[in-house]
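To illustrate the input format used throughout this study, we show a single complete record. The first block contains the structure-token representation of the backbone; no residue identities are included at this stage. The design step must infer an amino acid for every position from geometry alone.
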């Protein structure tokens, strides 16, 4: 099992909390794609998302919320 240290996640995101949110959203996007579930040794989607975030291969932007008037 691979362990992701919060400082690793924070290096590629503004902070560790935003990094986890970005990885979770990316994992949800990965879940929509068809994949071979019978492949042995396939990594979990959250692990794949955190790996790609710490490698710096995920680009994201923060969109400010609109306030309801």
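Output of the design step:
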């Amino acid at each position: 099992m691979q362990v992701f240290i919060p400082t690793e996640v924070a290096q590629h995101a503004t902070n560790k909390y935003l990094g986890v949110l970005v990885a979770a959203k990316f994992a949800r996007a990965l879940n929509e794609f068809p994949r071979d579930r019978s492949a042995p040794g396939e990594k979990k989607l959250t692990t794949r998302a955190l790996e790609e975030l710490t490698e710096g291969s995920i680009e994201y932007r923060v969109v400010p919320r609109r306030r309801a008037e």
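Structural context for interpreting the output: Helices lie at 6-11, 16-31, 45-55. The longest helix spans residues 16-31.
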